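ok here's DinB-like domain-containing protein:
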Amino acid sequence: MDVRTFLLQQWASCLDEEDWFPPLEKVLKDIAFEQAIWKPDEGGMHSIWELVCHLLFYEKRFLMRFLGETANEPQAENNESTFRLPAQTIENWKKTKQEYAYVHRELGKILAKSEHEDLYRQVPGEDNSLVLELKSLAMHDAYHIGQIVLLSKMQGAWAGKRSF
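and the structure:
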């Protein structure tokens, strides 16, 4: 298996193809607005929506840098500000989920179209190549998907049985 095929599989497992962990689209499918903004009383955890905003921030920033559209890339003072929510409305919750899926798919399309040498070319504004940055983003997604699942379980919003 070549590195692009391997990474495409990892990338898809973060969004819409079940593997060892549930993909984010399926995790978020039945999360209501109230569940998306809920936080446990203790522990300083972020809400589900804040976690999705955080994932979206880094994927969108990478996409904009890859496309050379740095003027459109999201900005943050520090990592903590990447969890910032837009106005807390049901419509904005839906938009955040849709935008995340769109950006994730766009990055997947770029990966799928990339020639071998393109995979290892450094992306402007990043420390690494396309393949290494997407590998890191996939691992980052998987980590936070686990947190989102935990928050779902804490609220009783997690399905009793999964397909795996």
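+1. The domain at 3-154 is CATH 1.20.120.450 (Four Helix Bundle (Hemerythrin (Met), subunit A)).
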